[in-house]
UniProtKB/TrEMBL annotation:
E.C. designation(s): 2.5.1.3
Name listed for the protein in its UniProt record: Thiamine-phosphate synthase
Protein's organism: Dyadobacter subterraneus
This protein's UniProt keywords: Magnesium, Metal-binding, Thiamine biosynthesis, Transferase
Underlying gene: thiE
Family of this protein: Belongs to the thiamine-phosphate synthase family.
Binding positions for 2-[(2R,5Z)-2-carboxy-4-methylthiazol-5(2H)-ylidene]ethyl phosphate per the UniProt entry: 130-132, 166
Length: 207
């Protein structure tokens, strides 16, 4: 099952990827995506192994961003691929039939492509500006989400779509009203004075 609240790991001057994951797990997140950029395969593998142990101790699911061989190596729950990563069909041959694979999309054409590739869910964004991602694509906002969901329905297409990109607790209710399946959040949880309270309120809206 695809979780409706997904946490994306982040590293800043104040916090490491593993510390951000620990904060999210303590707060009640049970779907964790390890997203590490600009580091070597060995460094990401090392981080992924530690993140897997951490997530397992909370009975939580770990998704690895970008690295199918690492996802397979550590027996992750899933793999997430960006638009510039290898095609989902190719990754599927590496990780096997049972691993969940999600894919990023920024446009209607991307969504249809991901569905045709066999994605299990889609991360669609950016909802609004976020400092956690470089080379940001055009912002979609509520109107963008509404229009894309409508276009999919007109074609009779359906897939769990997760909103991503600068989402705060206050954005969750209006986003769900557009027809989006769930949300992916990072900064709003790790920067909160009370992450547990933020996660509780978001889950209450989503479930």
């Amino acid at each position: 099952m695809i979780e409706k609240l997904q946490f994306i790991s982040n590293q800043t001057k104040e916090i490491t990827h593993l510390e951000s994951i620990q904060t999210a797990l303590d707060a009640g997140c049970r779907w964790i995506q390890l997203r590490v950029k600009n580091q070597s395969f060995e460094d990401v593998l090392n981080l992924a192994e530690k993140a897997k142990v951490l997530c397992d101790s909370y009975q939580s699911k770990l998704i690895i961003n970008d690295f199918p061989f690492i996802a397979k190596e550590i027996n992750a729950h899933g793999l997430h691929l960006g638009l510039n990563d290898m095609p989902i069909e190719t990754a599927r041959k590496i990780v096997g039939k049972n691993m969940i694979i999600g894919g990023t999309a920024n446009t209607f054409e991307h969504i249809v492509k991901r569905i045709n590739e066999g994605a299990d869910y889609i991360g669609l964004g950016p909802f609004q500006f976020t400092s956690t991602k470089q080379n940001l694509s055009p912002i979609l906002g509520l109107e963008g989400y509404r229009n894309l969901i409508k276009s999919l329905k007109e074609l009779g297409l359906s897939i769990p779509i997760i909103a991503i990109g600068g989402i705060t607790q206050e954005d969750v209710a209006p986003i769900t009203k557009t027809g989006m399946y769930g949300v992916a959040i990072s900064g709003s949880i790790i920067n909160s004075e009370n992450p547990r309270n933020v996660v509780y309120k978001i889950k209450k809206i989503l479930c």
